[in-house]
Amino acid sequence: MTLDESVRVQIDQLVQSSEVVLFMKGNRGSPQCGFSATVVGILDSILSDYQTVDVLASPEIRDGIKIYSSWPTIPQLYVKGELVGGCDIVQEMLGSGELYTTFGLEPVEIVQPKITISASALEALRQAATQQGGSDSEFHLSVDATFQSHLSIAPRTKSDVEAITPDLVLLLDPISASRADGITINVADTPNGQAFKVENPNAPQVEQMSVRDLKSALDAGETLELLDVRTPEERAIASIQSANLLNEEEAARIEALPRDTKLVLHCHHGGRSQQAAEQFVSLGFTRVYNVVGGIDAWSQEVDSDVPRY
Amino acid sequence: MALQIINAGPRPEETAGRIRAAIAGKFPDAAIEVLPQGPGHFEIKVTDTAFDGLTRVRQQQLVYGAIANLMAGTNPLVHAIDRLECLVP
Questions:
Q1: Superfamily of segment(s) A207-301
Q2: Which helix (H) or strand (E) holds A2?
Q3: Chain B: residue whose CA lies nearest to A78
């Protein structure tokens, strides 16, 4: 149960490498365990910048951090060199608002979201409750980082927030609550029978950007990732200088970036890039832009040296 | 050659006893409850004045520190603590 001195020094350096350091399984873009994913989701909703250490990449760190911290599980969150805790403690601190003060931020007041439930959805929920619910179980709605909603029946926890609904008690965790104001829940027919349909007005959308606005943003040196979703063959004919080809390697690099990174996508006319942009929104990116008219508009309105094809 | 039963493992109550003893070694005056939950899984509740004024992470670190040797290695006696409650009497 002793920690090798070289490993201790290595962990010391990692802990000090940033104000907020999360030891986790996997990385920020693709967590490899549910507890790590939960903590990443919480941190992403509060902080734009923090460091993660993938313990799966190093057996020494994976075993060593447990001894170093006197803490037997992963993930482990360090703030200013101090262990804050694992998944359950971070969740509890989020509910109490303590997590914000730990990061030196003003606590965000938790607002009860207003949620509309249609009569048929209400009826269906009540039926589900009589079939599945225990006496201490209540309805939960969660809204994940990609704004997908999930309904479940589970016991109430301390940090749960009650939605404002006229006829039913509906609980949300504090992060879901911050994403849920204005949601409507309906019942819709699907090929597999009836299902709940949740519409969320807060879900981020792909925004449209003109080629002129793109030019000004580039000239101003704005920090953004400009991505070309066309084929290498089209790119050989015409390309915008600072755009990177979105191949697999580039996609993996982008997916590991903070979710508030500004992504600007273009193709030939704006159709393929719109689809690709929607993909990035579904991965949780919150500032995703599609270049209207694509490189063809760029050739006509910004830079006639770029050939049209 | 003697027959060896692989994965039979010690009885959960026995391991619970070792957890209790390890915690009592660090907290002689504590009230300690250890409940086996499944193979290698336990719930622990420790009540001691020593926790007074400590944050939750510090309280739990003290308990985890006491049982660290039971949780170490590739195939430890104790795989996971499903629930750890530290209370001040």
A1: Rhodanese-like domain (3.40.250.10)
A2: none
A3: B57
**Contact across the interface for B81 and A69, Cβ inside 8 Å:** no
Tell which CATH architecture fits domain A7-102.
3-Layer(aba) Sandwich (3.40)
Q: Which of A70, A83, A92 sits opposite B68 (nearest CB)?
A: A70
Q: Would you kindly state where each structural domain of chain B is located, as residue ranges? A: 12-76
B84: nearest CA partner in chain A = A88
Closest-CA residue in chain B for A98? Answer: B55
* β-strand partners of A287: A262
May I ask the CATH architecture of the domain B12-76?
2-Layer Sandwich (3.30)
pLDDT tens digits along B1-37:
445 445 456 678 889 999 999 999 999 999 999 999 8
Which residues on A lie below 8 Å from B23 (Cβ)? none
* Assigned superfamily of A116-199: HesB-like domain (2.60.300.12)
pLDDT digits (tens, 9 = 90+) for A219-238: 999 999 999 999 999 999 99
Report the catalytic residues of A: 267
Nearest to A1 among B61, B68, B80 (CB): B68
Q: Which residue in this structure is represented by tokens 């010690």? A: B10
What span, in angstroms and rounded, lies between the C-alpha atoms of A196 and A185? 7
pTM of the model: 0.62
